[in-house]
Amino acid sequence: MSVIEVNNLTKYYGKARGIADVSFKVEEGEIFGFIGPNGAGKSTTIRLLLSLIYPTSGSAAVFGKDVVKFGPEIRKNIGYLPSEVFYYERMKVIDLLKYSASFYEGDHTERLHELAEYMELELNRRIDDLSYGNKKKVGIVQGLLHAPELLFLDEPTSGLDPLMQRKFFDLIRKENQERGVTVFFSSHILGEVQRMCDRVGIIREGSIVEISDIETLQKDNYKKIRVAADGLEPETFEMPGVTNLDRRNGAVRFFYKGDINAMMQKIASVQVSDVSIEEPTLEEIFMHYYE
To answer: Measured between alpha carbons, how far is residue 51 from residues 4, 67, 76, 208 in Å?
Structure first.
């Protein structure tokens, strides 16, 4: 079942573009990465799905229900960590989290304390005494304390130190694997997405340019090739599908998209001392879509 289904979703702020004709699906139990630079439309998409703002046109459904008509009902089963967190400054952390828990049915006290202990969050401190990173921890506990079925994470690791980032990712994996939580993970940090996600959508200037699983995205994209040989000139590899041709340290390097057998024949025609053919990183693929 598709937990999220988006059809031609469009949002304009007056004449300014938010997103335009965005369509995709996120399946149950999936960790879906949503990547693009700042200003590409990632947060706008999330806010539309949470019905915090309303679309100019198009539609979106979460748990099979229209987000505009059933927003309050849908949000009961959603956890949301926004990119920026703002709180009532004078409250203690524990009071804020208890207040948040009161919006959901059931007793969430035990889970609240478990999550706070795991994230090394001091519950008796006042919000205005916390660093930005510790406020982000409050947001993580707040987003997870009611055991939601769907998690929206918008640039979730900004402000967390590397050790806490790793703990956070371990926590999200556990939620996904043990409770089957579906995760919509928006980020411009590509290494995070590559490590965490099953599939990825790339958004550029408000429009989706690619949706694919990460393995296919790497395999169907292009190869990074390095060929070392005495007296080798870059022009040798000028052929269709070759880009970013460069000579450095006695070797020719380039990206190649096309019939790998044709490339192997070209390499075999040269007396080489070394050859490497690698999959591109998600970051290199991403930059390819933005060039």
So the answer is: 13, 6, 13, 20
Give the CA distances from residue 165 to residues 31, 168, 266, in Å, rounded to whole numbers and listed in that order: 17, 5, 45
Mean pLDDT by 10 residues, the chain (291 residues): 95 93 96 89 95 96 97 94 85 94 93 96 93 92 96 90 92 96 89 86 91 78 86 86 86 88 90 88 72 64
* CA 114 – CA 170 distance, rounded (Å): 15
- For residue 69, give every residue at least 6 positions away whose Cβ sits within 8 Å of its Cβ, in sequence order, or none: none
Note the helical H segments in the chain: 42-49, 71-75, 93-101, 109-118, 132-144, 162-179, 190-196, 214-219, 260-268, 282-290
Task: Give CA–CA dist 129/27, Å, rounded.
Answer: 40
**What DSSP element (H or E) covers 281?**
none
pTM above 0.70, yes or no: yes
Q: Are residues 276 and 160 in the same domain?
A: no
Quickly list DSSP for 96-109: HHHHHHTTSSS--H
Q: How many domains does the chain have?
A: 2
**Are residues 230 and 191 located together in one domain of the fold?**
no
28's CB contacts (< 8 A; 6+ apart) are 1, 2, 3, 180, 182
Domain C-terminal end among 178, 202, 217: 217
**Residue with tokens 């927003």, as numbered in its chain:** 71
In this structure, which amino acid lies at residue 198?
D
φ/ψ of residue 218, rounded to 5: -75, -45
- What whole-number distance in Å separates Cα of residue 75 and Cα of residue 185? 17
Domain containing 204: what range? 2-217
What percentage of the chain's residues is helix, strand, coil (to nearest 5)? Answer: 35, 30, 35
Structure tokens at 2: 């598709």
Please check whether residue 61 is in contact with residue 70, taking contact to mean a CB–CB distance below 8 angstroms: no
233 and 213 assigned to the same domain: no
